[in-house]
Design brief:
By secondary structure, the chain is α+β, with helices and mostly antiparallel strands. Among the domains are: 119 residues, no CATH class; 107 residues, no CATH class. Strands 1-2-5-4-3-7 form a six-stranded antiparallel β-barrel. The chain has a two-stranded antiparallel sheet with strand order 8-9. A hairpin with a 5-residue loop joins β3 and β4. α6 crosses α7. The longest helix is centred in the middle third of the chain and has 14 residues. The chain starts with 11 loop residues before the first strand and ends with a helix.
Length: 361
Amino acid sequence: MPHEARPGPEAAVGYVVGEVRTDAFAFVTTPDMAPPRLEYVCLRGVQEAGAEGAPRAIDILAQVSSLSVNSRLLSPSMSFAEVEAILRRLGASPPVVLGEAKVLGYLDPETRSVRLPRGAAMPGAVVERAPDAMLRAFFGKGVSSGLHIGSLINRPGVEVLMDPNGLRRHMAVIAQTGAGKSYTVGVLLEQLLQLGGTVLVFDPNSDYVLMGRTPEKQPTPFAERVQVYRVPNEQKNRIADAEIGRVEHLSVRFSGLDVDELCDLAGITEKATNIRYAVRTAVERLAGSDYSPEDLRAELEQIAGLSGLPPEGRAEAGFDVERFLGGEAELDREAELPESDDPDDWFGDPAERARQRADAR
């Protein structure tokens, strides 16, 4: 049954009409009282079964999804002359304003968690404009100090706070392109820093390198806690280190790269199995040392020289040249290991490799 206490005129925006579902309802209102789309409304005293089966009254929060206005007198099948005649006689046609609302849920008084109702309101129930206190409790769930991520679009005075303890191992920010995912994550990062948190960000698009600077290029309150590590590069249109603030150049230890990473950097495709095998053999021989690109090149040049050894010499060297060459059949460049001393013959022209990587993207 609908709640017996009727709200004052400042809170009521309409009455529930038609079919009522647990996830949506329709309500009739007037042009003066009609809440705008996306406004928050509530239904008080909706009955549902409690944990022990006993009925209890809950206050349901909903959001207006659409508004429509129609007239019982002015039918779409009428002609222009018929509509004009009615308007001349009556002066106006009383509008019927119908709203649709989507149920968001209710705040369980026992667990303080948001739940979806298991009961539906009755037709004729009063639809109220949701008070700010209800919205704060619903969206903040009792968080008095947390991550301030913004305010409700129709209620600038209702701030939305996230409990930092709710950020567990997995969290995703999902939205369509241009909806503000990166900006939202930036707000969360700033709020976490201001609360004393430590955050590690992998930022391939350089979305957050300027977190230590304001739009006016002044230090932010937490600038001393923002440390940016970036690869040394003179790429065009790259943000300069001086604009970022605290920057340290980060280089990867060459000997720490695995075979696949080395081949990817060199532009060696997966089809070039013999060349990749040679790289793997060279890496295995150098394992345990902090070798440089020059060391790897020297090892590869030594491997290339083994192809001229007689079979007994190959075995003594511990290198299966027949496997390395893939047999005595004629091989194309992608499968053949050149005997040249020029590393470009091994890995291809640098400009060509750069073009292939750009095409692959």
